[in-house]
Structure formats: structure tokens, C-alpha cells
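Q: Can someone sanity-check these two? First one:
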Amino acid sequence: MTLDDFRREIADPAIEFRPELRWWLAEGLHTDATLRREIEDAHRLGFGGMEFLAMDEGEIDHARYGWGSEEWVHDSQIVVEETTRRGMSVSFTSGTNWSNANLPTIDPDQRAAAQELDVVHETLAAGQARSGALPRIDLEAPIAETTLPGHRGTITQQHLVAVVAARVAGEGRLDAASIVDLTAQAQGESLDWTAPNEGEWRLFAYWMHGTGQTASPSASVNYTVNYLDRDGVDAVIAYWDDVVLTPALRAEIARNPRAQMYMDSLELSTYGAGGMFWGFTIADEFRERRGYDIVPWLPFLTRDAPFMAVSTVYHHQPADDTDRLTVEKVRFDYVRTLTDLYIENMLRPFAAFLHDVGMTLRAEISYGLPFELTRPGPEVDGIETESLEFGAQIDAYRLMAGPAHLFGKQYSSETGATTRNHMLDHRFYDQIIATQLAAGITKTVLHGWASPAGAEGVTEWPGHEGMWPMFSERFDTRQPGSEFYPLWTAAIGRLQYALRRGRPRIDVGILRTDHFTDNLIGMALIGPNGERIPDEVAYGTMWMRDRQNHWWQDLGMQDAGITYEFFDGSLLLRDDVTFDGDEVQPAGPGYRALIVYQSTLDADVAAHLRDWVQRGLRLVIVDGARELESLMAGRHRTHEVAASATPGLDGRDDELAAITAELRRMPGVRVTGPSGVVAALDDLGAGGRARFVDDDRHVLTHLRQDGDLTVLYAYHFLYETAETTTVRVALDGEGAVHRLDPWTGAVRPHRGARRDGDRTIVELTLAPGEVAIVVLDRSTGVVDSTAPAHVEVARLDVWRLVVESWDAGEPEVLTEDRGLGYVSREVRPATAITHMDAGDVDLAPWAQLDTVGPEVSGVGEYTATVTVPDLAAGARYLLDLGSTNGGLGSVRVGDGGERGFDTAHPVVDVTDDLRPGDNLVVVRVSSSLNNRLRARGYYERVPDIGAQLTGEARTQHAIVRDYGLVGPVRLLRED
């Protein structure tokens, strides 16, 4: 690609680069007119695609409108037709709502339904005999509470899997050496057995039965499918092949090159006492893959996991510390086997089916269940993460960047879900997106969109909620800021276009294995004294913005501008991962070094690393690294000696020890602690392709290379806690440097670049929260330049303000008669806009202006005149708005067009619009709906889900938010 190509294509980025939307439909209730209107609105506002799903809509007739009904199938056809007609992507979900793959054609007793291993036990004294029927699971007993969606339906069948006895060695402790497998002695479901003569004994009977987890809304009852046995995906494929994908729908999919299936959260529940995901083939598969029987170890595998895998607490530990390592290895082998089966029996066949019908598979892989986080990456077409559960943390986004970049997968994020519905300014969401881009996420899927129209009786202004009022945000026409979405979506489209050019260039790959990833970071919002920490405070001032990354905790590489990401070491064993003597996966991320730091490492991976080191691989072995296990629980793990044992019970510890001892002596390997990694990389000649000349604690970067073009993304991520920073970045190669204006598409020479040997030094001054894209064109010579100075030409202190105040208007009732014997009705709340003339004002938040006040939300229009006697030839003129309190908006000067601005650094290039003499300046700034909704009592009815997770029921506490242009507004000349 040439710079001219880049400049031409980025001016108006194609629709596939625009942000996309998650669309919560009110089941199949929406009229055809509503569906078409919403898609047209989304397209008009610049969004590139719609992922649609059914959400429970109160007391409507679910049999008529729920997922799987004729109305839902009809609406799906409309959605696919209308998105395809506009060139938008369209994504189905693998069942109703979002939480898992589910079907109406199965029941919990069938092999295709999700299964669990449950347990019941008897306690026997020394020498005590028991006989007769083994205790069964009481399937009608109260079940364990879960915060995950769905409830347990009716289960009628259970199957005896195993019987095991163990000597009790204290509360929660068992003597591992005493365990005896009694399964073969059971006759049918009966057992005669006498406990040994020493100690108290516990007899465990393990039964498999369906989880019975349901999903709604559905025309009948949807049950979660089996992710581990092949029966589950076969049932999913059969349902979609036979029922959903009608000839008409297939024809539309064939016309849409971006039709997808989206598998969202793995929110699968077990309800019984065992807490183990299971299947009809698990025991046999475990034995074949791991080389030993899982049954004797079952007492150490049962667990409680009230909310996601990270919350796992095992019921029993071995009494003897010498057995603890063995038990940990067995636990690893169990979850490794689950991951194998998830890949082989769900993802791989489902993706193959979808490819046959012209669709791709995008998925939030692994997290939430005890599956290895990154190993499933190669099996899907797109890997998705999310901002909510991971708290929009850079280290969390790095977790799955490894497999995405190694295998050339689209890396996307579900973006914008919070617990602060309608409360926060637009800047908050822009900062989430900016953080994602720094990790190489190049597809933003906003969470989300809902039509204002919904069911009568439950739909109030500002509109149908969709994903409830407590767990999301809306990026649709109910927002005052939607007026400016075309400018905003184009800017995001330009950023995403730039960061999809060519191939990523990541300096370091970090080997990391995790089956219990902490995906509850975004819910860790309760302080040490029980106080509720607002989302915006946590995101803006805590964790990564308080020098606390979660997994790679030493910040030396980040401060130096050395980029890194994580992946499971077994991925290096794949035939499609290569090392060319300098880089790992040169056509992908091109890691110039790898890091091993966890205390366990697979022996085959270690041998593979040894072979690569002999060919020139740079390897850093890090002892003493600490990483997060659970933020809520305050639990971390320190790996005192890296690669000191194999993770599973494979008998290869001695073999691993010999390999790692050899590795530690090899000349291409450095052994250090976390704080010595940067020096080790420098010593190996892998100090970073976009190295900071001086360490900088404020900036994150991401690098792409496309032919002669190197694209650098830089982001000042301390948007709440720091001042402007100037960073100098040393880019490999020589050439001319240009900078992109994301809001206009202009690509202009960058002032502040110089050659330094075979590198180009780029100087960037970034305000807190500001992002920059610079392009190094190596096809031409370096043009040395100094950074510009800015001279204030004028200051605009007094403005005329008119506020367009948004409030509830008269709702509209919509009806639809499709000739099926009934009429569908929905209500569409309307917004009434009142113009409030505040007169001439000194810039201040609306709440502080007597003519506006604290109960107003909407759009403010500010007008002023700036007088410029003459314009300097060749100079650039910038209008610096100071602050808009995070509000999205636009600027128009004279007869010029509307220009958008960065909500963190609202500075607009007005050079082409400014004229000598008087110039009318019009600034429009939007707000959130918080202040108006607060005044209406909306939040008094909205539960605070962040507090609920601690067991405390409370409603949202809404404060008055600052809105509007507050300046100082200055016209600057760039000299």
C-alpha cells in the first residue's frame, strides 16, 4: 500500500470499518416498519452492522413472539434483508438472548443437552458396613443460587457414573492415599461395602444428569446444549439447517459477505452439589487423552462456582501437602480435557457448518467456563472480548490478542456495557475504545442498540430498554448525542481502518496458560469499607490507571514502549506457527522474543522452545513473577521458579527439568526477575520496534506494517489523573512521517520528526485521553522537522447559549396486522424538545446556569464571533474548545461544514473555514440523559447490579452531571 492509497481510502472509510451494534429486540414483537426504521437509522448514523438477539419483553405472549416463533423467524428475515441491502454486516446469536447456545428441540434428559456431574455422600465410621441402594440425587430439592441467566427446568433422569470412598482427615480434607474406586463393585445402583477399620470414611456416589438450564424468551422452552459431547453441536446444526435457515434466509445470507454467527458469553450453570461440567464421553476421553482414570480423583474435583469459573472453590483438599501437587495436576488435566472437547465437539464442527452455508463464526471464547483461554482461538473466524467483565483493562485485552494475531483472526470487543445506564459522558466510552485499539482490537461492537418502541405497559421514555436498565448503555436515537454519531462513527472507522492495515508488529509474546481467567474485574466495584465505587472512578483512576496491571504486573516493558501479548504455549506446536530465525510468526505479529514465567510448562513446548533457541530464538525466562487470580477475592499467585513442573500428571517433570536446565544455559536465553526483563530484551537485541527514547508512563502504542508504510497508534491513557505528555518514539526504518486527523480524514506531514541512524524519531505531544495515528512512509526520505509552537490568536469567553432540552413527549402506538388472526401492538415513546434561550453566558456547566439548571439534558448550541484581522499564509488555525465535559458535538465556523472533535481533547482544525475579519462560530455539545432521568425519578427504580453482586439490594445513586461547553475556548495559530 502507498501513502496515496492510504490517504484516499481513509478519507471516507468503507462500511466494514465502521463500529457495529448489538441490537436487543423486544422478542418478535417489533413491527416490520419498526425494524426497517431502526436499521435505516443505524445505517444513517454510520454504523457498519447489526448483531441481533431476542430479549425478554415483559408479559407479552412468548409463544407468539419468542425466539423460534413464526414472528421471530419473520423478523429475522426482515433484519437480514434490510442490513444486506445497505451493505451492513449481520450477526445471528446461537440461541435466544446472549448467554449460551440453546434450543427448543431438546430436553435436559437428552444427550444433546448440557450435563453435569452431581454428588451425594454418606459418612461411615471405622468398620461400618452399608448395603443396598446408593443414595440418588434429589432432583426436586432446592438448588444452589446462581447469578447467571436461566433457571433449572424439570429433570427426570440420572445416571450413576462412579462410586468412590475416602478417609476423612479433617474439615474439607481427605487422605488421597486412602481413596478407593468402588464403581466396579456396584451392582446396578446398589453397593455392599464395609469401611476400613481406621478413621471416618466418606462414600461418594457420582451421578450425571442434565443441568436443565433454560434460556428465555422462547416460543417454547429452550435448554442449554451440551458443549462437550458431539451430540450438542449436532443438534444445533440440525435445528439451524432444518428450521432457521429457510431457503429465503439462505438466499439473503449468500448476498451478504459479512453474515456471521455470534457465540456470546459462556454463561453455563450447574445446579447440583458437584459443580462439574460433564458429558457422556468425558471419563473415556479423559482416560484416552491423559493416560489414567479420572474416577479416583473425583472427590478433589467437585466444586462450588457461584459466578463464573474464577469463583471456583474446591470442596476437598488432600490432607498431605505432598499430594497437593498431584491433585493440582489432575485438576489441570480435567480442565485441559474440557478445553479439548469444547474445541473438537463444538467450535470446530459448528464453524465448518457455518462456512458451508456462507457464514463465519465470531465468539467470546472460553472465559467464564474452566476452558483454557486462548487455545480455542484458531478454531473461530473472529475472537471477541468485552469491556464489561474485564473492566476495559489493557492487560485483559492482551489476554486474547495473542491467538488473534498469531492466526490472523479479527479481534473485536463488545464495548460499552456498564452498570451506569444513561449516566456517563461520551468521553467515558471513547476511552474504552481507545484502550481497546492499543491492544490491537480493530472491531468495536457497541453494547448496544434498542428501538425506542416496545411492549405496551412496560415501555416508558426514553424507550424500550432491551438489555434492562442496569447492565448496558444505548447508542441509538434516544441519545442527544446521536445527532453527532455520523461524525463519530466515521472517526472510529478511520482509526479501525488504519489499524487493520497489513500485519500487527508485536515485540514480545508471553506464554501464559489459564483455565480460570478472572472475567469479573469490571464487577469489582465495592471498596474496602463496603462503599460502591462508581464505574467511571474505577475505570479512570484505578487498576491500569494506578500502575496496576493484572497479569504481567511489572510495567517496565509498557513504560519503555515494548509491546507484548499472551497465548498458551501449546499454540506454538501447531504447523501453522513458524519461526524464521528472527521472528515468531513473521507474517503475523512477528514476536522478536518470547517470555516464559509461569511455574508450569508443557514438556513438549519446552522442547520446541529449545529447538527454536538453537535456531536463533530470543527467550527470556522470568522467575518470581506475580499475577492475578481473582481481583474480588484479592488472590494472586507468584511463580517463584519458571517452568519448574509440567502442568498435568504426565510423569514428565524430570524431562522438563532437564530441558529447562539446558535452556537456562543457552546463549540465546536470559534468566531474570520481572524488573530485569527490559534489560534482558535489550541485551538480546529485541528492545522494541517503537521504543520510547525515554520511558513514559502515560502512553500505550500499537504498531502495524503494510509494505512501505508503518502505522503507529499512540494513546495517552491517563485521561483522569495526568497532564499533557510529550513522548519520543523511535520507529525502525527511515522515511517521511504523516499524521491522521481521525475526524476529517486529512493526512498531513507531521511536524516533530528526525532521522536517527536507521530509525526515525517521532515526537508526539498528547493530552490526557488523546489518541494519535502517525504513518511512516519508508518509500521516501526523512524530512526533519521541529515540533510546532502554538500561539493564541483570540479567546472566546462570552457565548450565546440555546439549550434543546429533551424530555418525554406523547407516545405513539404502532400496530401491525399480518393476516395471521391477531394484531401486534407496540408503543414508541417520543422525545419532546424544548428550546431554552439562556442568553449570553460565561462558560460554565448547565447545572450552574440559572437559565438552564440541574434537571436538563439535551443539546446546547453556543454561538460567538471571533475576529481575525488577517491570516498568516501557510499557517494552521486550531479552535481549542478546552472542555465539553465529555460531551460529543460539532463545530462550524463561518460557511464551513460541521466538524467533529475528540471528547478528551476537543481541538478542531478550522484553517479552511476561517476568513479575515469576523467569523461566526457555532459549537453544539450534547449531554447524557442522566440529569433529566434523575429529575423524573428514573433511577429510583433501577437496581444497582454492582451492589447486588455483594448481596446488597440497592438502587442506582444518580448525581447531577456537569454538561456543556466550559472552555476555555481559544483560537490558536500553529507556527
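And here is the second, same format, sequence then C-alpha cells:
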Amino acid sequence: MIFSGNRNSQQRLAVGVSRAALAMGLMFVVGTGTAMAQSAPTENDTVASDSTDIVVNGFRKSVQSSIDAKRRSDFIVDVVTADDIAGLPDVSIAESLARLPGVTSQRTGGQASAINIRGLSQDLVSATLNGREQVATSGNRVIEFDQYPSELINQAAVYKSPLASHIEGGIAGKVELKTVRPLDITTDVKGSFNVRGLYNDRAGQNTDVSEFGYRVSGSIQTKLLNDTLGLALGYSRLYQPNVATRFVQFDFPVPGTNGSPSVDLNGNGRPESRNFGFEGIQFGGQETRDAGIAVVQWEPSDRVHVLIDGYYSRFNSDVNRRGFRVFNTQSGGNQILNPVIVNDALVGGRFINQTGGAVGTELVNQDESRRDELYTIGGNFAYDFTDRVTLAVDVAYSSGSSDFNNAGINLRPYSATSTGLQRTDGVGPIIVDYRLNGTRLPTINQISTNFTDLTAAGGGFLLDGQFLVPQGDRDRLFTVATDLVVSLDESSVFDKLRFGFRYADRRGDRTVTSFNTFGIPGSPREVPASLVTISGFRGAYAAAGLPNFGVVDINGAFNLAFGNSFGSRQPTDQIAFDFTLDQSFRIDETTYAGYGQVDFATVLGGLNFRGNFGLRVINTDQSSTVFFADPLLRDNPATPPPARENRRFVTRGDNFTDFLPSVNAILELSPTDLVRVSYSKQISRPRFQELRASISVNTGADGNTSGGGGNPQLAPFRANQVDFSYEHYFGNSGVFAVGAFYKGLGSYIINGTIPQFNFPANGVTPPPFINSLGQQVPGNPIGSFSSPINGSGGYVYGIEVQFTKSFVELPAPFDGLGVQLNYAYSDSDLNFPSSTSGQPINLPLPGLSRHVFNPIVFYEKNGFGIRGSARHRSGFVSPQIGISELILTSTPETIFDAQISYQFPKNSFLSGLKLLAQANNLSDEPTRTFFGQTAQTGTIQNFGRTFYIGGSFSF
């Protein structure tokens, strides 16, 4: 790269690079530094610092910048800033956000990914990058924040009260991420390099995982052409183990349904709910994330401002699910001895499959690899017509994709019989003796099959099936936005008038395909020993009785079955199974939004009074298209398969308009005390999956019709919101804040039934039926339809308390101490029905933890830094993945992290070098879930502790 700055800046760059090279040779360098260029203040940033401001550096400077951003804002917000690229103190953006008041995270693979805000789930959280709405790789609008490496983010904020000028969406809150602006740096060139090695202490238990990984990143910013042109480039790479040791208990069907008998085992007159079975899993593999940013900022005059920025992230997760599974424990064909029953739920006993058709076992070898890719590019042109009038035009395109492999092989035990090899669960005997222990690991006394025997002789596990059903999700968004800002006379109460318009065109696609068979030629087949490795469990999992098991090379098994020419097992659109088409859909969404906003600043009773009010109006046109299997159409036998002549495209949708007012008022009681009050109306759009136009329809013998599917006519979640906050600032070294909020949800999306659904009006003709006269007549066009619906709403309320302080006033050496403490309480009257525990119950709002507490204690002095932190949340309801997605209750969890670092002084030859060591999840805190009552175990999983060591160098 060529720099056209002055000669001194080039010399400084050369010296910086040479020092970096020397530092690399000295030791294991890297990580992320803690200084990143502060984002330029926004137009709303009007509060000046007072005489008690104290200049600090390092993590304390980042804390100080966060306090200052919160203080200056004209709406309710909490901020995490960084003072240098790669400067955020946490491994991921999600972890940093989860330390803010009222914010919690859910762990995926042991690290924070999804964000909950103020007791509301990730479905109600929206995200923007540099002010632009972000697409998702989840296939369901939910932003996965581990796609955004902390090294490339300059500032992260949680907006808790919206402005009319903000993009709609995010009843829970909005997360705004910002990258650097190179013209804001105070030198001609600024850069950083980072390297960090990592070790996970649980990964060694998994045959698919390496314990070691690394993080590397680099960035550079420069100003050229007399500081009118700024360029920034950044790159980050993560290579790490993804590991989880799991015990998964499957759900409990209602007695008399799904193959579960309605039998009373203990004679109390009520039948017990029986679970489907359980599995022990070593899940894991390696993850690789590559991400980069590029920024071009050009301001050739005081009136012209041009900004072009792009972001790219590719996340490859090569992971497998390995272990054993016990199924059909709910079957009425089991002989059950010593049943253990708690509140009408069967949670243990000795299950005997004596003659077949009851409890069975199998090995689990599944490839759950994913390929996620995300990129966004945008250009913003702003022109100052006068000192008081600015027009900005912003154009952006974003694309997100996710490809889920979803493949595996089936190995089940076989027994030699007089008629040849037969599946053992079909002829018996199989014995499983175990007991659930609530939110602790179970006690497994006996499983009669040997999960390490993969030979044909004597009941070994043989290859008898496979599946390859990959799923691809695409999310694309094109936007054009204009904003006009008119500054009024300083003598006016009204400070600025803002007007804007935004057009957005979004499309989401899901495509599910399949290999053309689920069988294995010549099955059952013995797997060669060269493809088998023996694995198992250690520690508490082994003590609980979870057995060792055989691990099979999945690719090798496919090639064994289909020949080496089978290769990478690419599926084909010439699929043999219609169910994949039924799961595929397209969503189209076009929105037009306009807003007007007034900023004001005046004096009220001798006190400064400022804020804004405005209205945002949004028109939404949404539709979904599916390839529907029409019961009235038939394939032509003469057409080569797959003909698909029984299918036709069906498109359904709706159009609606929302009016979203907002008011934010700030009263400055003193130079250090603020009171904020906010009112707004906000929306959150449904998941793509809920909007799908998929329809299934059946006609009964009486002519009545029923069906199920998605609902493209779903309206968004809607809520009226009120916020109050009092804030006291200790100069720029600290803040004490207490706030309260109330969200009245006018509607909430739930699974329900539309009793009078008009099938023909939605493009579907019910199949005919044979009446009592033997005549074929049309089915009733009106019938019941099960789908997501807009149910009645409710409310969520809570309080938040925050205390942040750098104790710079204390005598040395205590002046390096600092704390960040925040606590949040949330509650709601919303609940929804669930029967996964076997009994109809009501569960609270997903994502809501009544109590959230995040303490951080840090010390920085003479270059040394140490930080200890915890993230605690009380129990909450959330989706949990076992065989399929289920809603379970999670127990409280507390995660401890620690970090120690040393920054070489400025007068040292190693100036700019920072060394650090870090430990995450020090107690190896598990996630624990249950069905309805704690006795009905859901999932227990541990992710291990992760240790980092490295350093960073900035110049």
C-alpha cells in the first residue's frame, strides 16, 4: 500500500512496523488492544463536559467514552465504545452487549450469539450497521451477532427509545454497530495488528475437535490529500473449537398421543406422560470466521461529504453430532419395572423390550456443518446547501446466506435370528434402566446394547440408512434513503427540522433439497474398522453412566455405500421426496417509510430542556410464494419423473400501514443530573418461517376441511412504550442511572387456529370426498386452519439500575480501581400454552429473565490492567434444540470471565505493544433446561473453559 502523507508519517510507519516485527519475535503476541478512534459526535451530541473531567487511557478511556456518549444522546441508550480498532474488551460483540443494563445473551457453542433486551427475545431485536438495516444468516430475521468480530467494530449501542428518524423495528430494542471513520483520526496514519492463541479445556474429549485455535486481525487508517480523503481497511480471522458435551432428554407427549399410551402406572387414577427417549452427545468441530471492512471517506470541501463503506463476513462451522440415542421409551410395548413418577410424569424406571416394537437404541453420527456468508455495501452522499440545510442520500445493498448440510448415517443394533439379521429393537431384548435427576445429570444404571460394537456378529451396530437434506437460506435487502436536516435560528425553541424517506426491497428464500434415497444399498452393512473410532465421556458425564460409543467417518460410510464416485454427496433438484418442496418458500417484502422530526432545545424554569418529537409512517407490502401440491392435479404418467405437474405456484400476502409517533424529552436538573422521559410506538416484523405461504389441506369423511401452514397475512408485533430515566454523572469518570420502562403490546404472534379459513380465497381448493350416496363432491371451502396468528397482547415492564465509576479521586495506588455494576428486573403478564411436558401448562414470555446482574471490577495503573466480570441471568424460556426445536425453561446461569494485561509505556522501545491473558467461562457453567417442572430434564450441556494469550501492537 502506498501512503501519500508527509515524510514524517512514512517514517513513523516504518518504525512502527519494525517494532511490531520485534515484538512478534519476543513472544506469543496479540489479541485486541483497547484503543479505537472515537466516532464523530452526532448532531444530537450537545452536552459539553464539565470541570471535573479527568483524562484517562486504556479500558477506563473506553468506559469514559461510553459514559460521554450516553450523556450526550437525545434518546435513551447504552453504549460500548472502543478507543482503537480491535479495542472492544470482549471476544465478541454479543458478549460486550450482554454487559449493558437489561441486556442478556443466549449461548451457542459456548459463546454469546443471540441478544435479549428488556425481557424480550431476539425475535424482537433489530440491528443496524452504520445506520443501515442488517440482513440475517439465521433464515428468520434473527441477527447472529457472532458474525461481527469485535476487532472491526468501533462502537456498539443499544437504543432503548427510538427516534422518528430511526429505521422501524425492534420492540425490544435496536443494536447499532459502527465501524471507523478514517478522517476522524488525529494522525496521518493509524494501525493495529493483533494475534491471540486460544485453548479450550473440554475440546480434547471430542474426536472431531482440536483444543487449540487463534484470532488474528489487522487494520490501518490513513488520511490523504490534505486530510480530505480517508481510507480504512480491516481484516479479522477466527479459528476456534466449537464444543459441547450434552445430555438431551426428549419431550413428553400428552398421554394417548404420538404413540404414548394412556396408562396409569401408579394407580392414582391419572395416566402418566412418558418421554420419547434421550441421547448423550459429544458435539463439536472447528469454526472459521473471516471478516473485513473497507471505508472510503471523501470531503473535498466543507459542503460535500462522501462515505462508502463495506463489510464482509464468512463463517464456516464444520461440526458433527456424535453419540448414542435411546428412543421409544414412551411405547406401550415396554415392560416397565420400578417406575419413577413425579407429578404424573414418568422420569425413570427399568424399560424392557422383550419381543420387539418397543425401546430401541442407535448411534448418532450427523454432519451439522454450516456455511454462513454476509456482506453489505453502502454509499452516503451529503451536501450542505447552506450552513443550515443538509441533504443526504444513502444507497445500500446487503446479502446474507446460510447453507446447512444436515446429513447423517443410521447405525442400529442387529441380532442373528433363524431368518437372518434382524434389528434388535424389532425382536428384543433391549433393556434400559435410568432415572432423571432434574437439572442434574441422570443416573444411567444399564443400557444392554454395546455402543462400541460395530461388527455383524452378536448384536453389533450396522449401517442401514442415511439422510442428506440440506437447507439453504438467503436474505437480500436493497434500500434507498434520503434525509433533509434544516437548522433553525438559535433564538428559536426548535433547533432542527428533520425529514426523510426510505424505500426497502427485501427477499428471503428457503430451499430444502434431498439426496434421492434414504436407503443404503445392500443394508445392513458392516462398517470397516478403519472407519471407526471409539469415543466417550469424561468427568461427571461418565460418572452418570453415559457409555462409550463408536464414531464413524461419515464421508467414508457414504462412499462405502455408494462408491467413491459419490464424492461430496451433492443433492440434486431432481429430488424424490415432495416434503422438501413443502418446506421451501420465498418471502417478498417492500416498505415505504417517511418521517418528520423536530429537535428542540430551550430553558424551562431555569433548567435546560431538550429533546425531539416526530412521526414515522410505514407502508408494508408482504407476500410469500410456494410450490403447492394441489390435490386436484395429477402427474402425467408419460412425463419423466419428477414431473411436478401436480404442483403450482401460490402467492399470498397482505398490505398494511403503521403510524409510529415518538417523543424524547431531557431535563437537565444540574450540570451533572438529567431526567429523561420517552414515549413511542414501535413494531417488530414476524419471522420468515411464520410468513410462509405453505398450506396443507385435508377433507374429512363428513366433508369438513382442515389444514395448517404459515400465515402471510400476519401483521407485525406492535407496542406502545414509555421510558423514564434519572442519570447522575460524576464528571466523565462515572454515572449512576435508574430507569423504568413499560411496553404495552397490542398484539403478539402465537400459534393458533383460524376457525373460518377460506381455502379457495387463498389459492387452494380442498380435495373432494365421497358422500353417503357414493358421489364425489367438493370439500367444504371454509374450514379450520392452524398457523401463526396475531393473538391478544399484554405488557412488559421493568426497572434498570446502573453504577459505573473510575475511582480516579482515590490516592495512589487505589486510583486505578473502577467498577461497572448494573441490575435489571423485568416482568410480564404474557404467557403461551405448551404441552411438551405432557400436561397443558402456560409458559412465560420467551427470553424474559426477571433478574439480570452484570458486575465488572477493573484496575489499571502504570500499564498493568486486570478485569474480572460476571454475567448473571435468572431462569428464562427459550427455544432449545434436541431432535427438533422445542420451547423449554432454562435455569439461572452465571458466567465468570477474567483478563490481565500489560501496556508498554510510550517512552519504551516497545511503545504500542500490549500483552494480555484472558479466561472465559471460568466455572464451565452449563446450560440446564427442563420441561414444565424441574424433574423433567430437558438439556444439560457444558462448553468448557476457553483461555487466550497474546497481544496487540498499534501505531
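A (reply): Looked at the second one. Residues 20 and 201 are 30 Å apart (CA to CA). The first strand starts at residue 77 and ends at 81.
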